[in-house]
Amino acid sequence: MTLELSTAGESHGPALVGILTGLPAGLRLDRDAIQADLARRQEGYGRSPRQQIETDQVEVLAGLRHGRTLGTPLALVVPNRDHKNWTWGMSSWAPEGEATGKGKEAVTLPRPGHADLAGVMKYGHDDVRNALERASARHTAVIVAAGAVTKALLHEIGVTVSGSAVAVGGAEGDDGIREAIDAARGERDTLGGLVEVRAQGVPPGLGSYATKEERLDARLAWTLLGTQAVKGVEIGEGFALAGLRGSEAHDEILRDEAGYRRETNRAGGIEAGVSNGEEIVVRAAMKPLPTLMRPLRSADLATGEPAEALVERSDVAAVEALAVVAEACVALELARAAKEKFGGDAVGDFVAAYSAYVERIPWSPR
Ligand code: EPS
Questions:
Q1: Taking the mean position of all CA atoms in its chain, how far away is CA 40?
Q2: Whose CA is nearest to atom 5 of ligand 1?
Q3: Ligand 1 centroid – CA 313 distance (Å)
Q4: How far is Cα 288 from Cα 22, in angstroms, rounded to an integer?
Q5: Is 136 a pocket residue for ligand 1 (Cβ < 6 Å)?
Q6: Is 222 exposed, middle or buried (0-12, 13-18, 19+ CB in 10 A)?
Q7: Which residue lies with its CA nearest to atom 3 of ligand 1?
Q8: Is the dihedral of CA 312, 317, 323, 329 positive or negative?
Q9: Does residue 227's CB lie within 6 angstroms of at least one atom of ligand 1?
């Protein structure tokens, strides 16, 4: 059984839901570790006031007994606490009684850069809310919960994954980033940025050159580009490699008593779509968030007349949140690739297959 995550949930609906299939049985999960990642995702500087009204909590409805996985689908739920303000507006069934709370009025002012315009045209909606609710980055909360679960599986074979914000609006370092966010907030604008995820202890041989679908670099690009606001992904030196000579670009192969190793890691730990035993390094570029307090030009869907885009509560920047989300995405994909390689219905089988493999190859984790 391959490891797969399916999700459902709207930003202001009752909850986000995730079903993770293909986890081996007997994996011990730590509720605090999942909660810690959910909290990290909400902490970044520049987030919307919504982060103060909600503290995400994960509930596990199936697949876990006394803290250990059963080898059955793991059902995760992250309730949207803000839903209490949207019970009429986001009611699943035709709402009863007088319209009350948020979401009563149809949204007809699409924001450049959001799903709004393409979404209503594609699905035939007349309320932009029907598109924006699912397109919202709120969705990433349940991805982070599932990512924390897969980090536990990777931990069993000594793999650790960590994400960080490298730059926000072109500024680097904590002070620079805060300054840039404060300035953008003052000008009622938004910022994007750059995040980096590093995975250590990944053995050679995850992913495959055999088909495009199996290539680990393609899979990391897929999962990151599939995340809200991400417009670019690079592995290792990525775009910079395009300007180098072959003699400057590749990582020479060295051998010592511990096995094969490299002195440089311009490939970011992946060659020909296969992990090569070095640290995996992947970066994602995030565009500035599209909900602006000083709106861009748009057109009213109801009248066709020129209008300013929708203004609603939003973040100034969510790059630090994306770093946590990207970490979860990379963990999910690495865990999926590890599960393909090592299999195992019980977590002990998975670890035993890893150990036998590492015993066979001239490589050791550093
Ligand atoms: C988002 C808009 C904001 C963000 C939200 C993503 O939500 P709201 O409009 O309810 O204030 O806060 O992110 C989250 C709620 C979250 O948990 O990350 C958007 O339009 O993508």
A1: 13
A2: 138
A3: 8
A4: 36
A5: yes
A6: middle
A7: 314
A8: positive
A9: no
Whether 140 contacts 325, CB under 8 Å: yes
Q: Is the CB of 312 under 6 A from ligand 1?
A: yes
pLDDT, tens digit (0-9, with 9 covering 90-100), for 22-79? 999 999 999 999 999 999 999 989 998 888 778 999 999 999 999 999 999 999 999 9
For the CA of 313, the nearest atom of ligand 1: 11
pLDDT band, residue 182 (cuts 50/70/90): very high
Residue pair 334/280 in contact (Cβ under 8 Å)? The answer is yes
Point out the ligand 1 atom lying closest to the alpha carbon of residue 140. Answer: 18
Q: State if pTM tops 0.85.
A: yes
Exposure on the CB side of residue 83, measured as CA atoms within 13 A: 19
Task: Give the number of the atom of ligand 1 that is nearest the alpha carbon of residue 47.
Answer: 12
CA distance 40 to 178: 17
Residue 138 CA to ligand 1 centre (angstroms): 5
**Please, is 241 exposed, middle or buried when counting C-beta atoms within 10 Å of its C-beta (0-12, 13-18, 19+)?**
middle
Reading the block at residue 317, the tokens are 């920047």
Counting atoms of ligand 1 from 1, which one is nearest the CA of 290? 20
List CB contacts of 239: < 8 A, sequence separation 6 or more.
Answer: none
Question: CA dihedral defined by 176, 181, 185, 186, rounded to 10 degrees?
Answer: 0
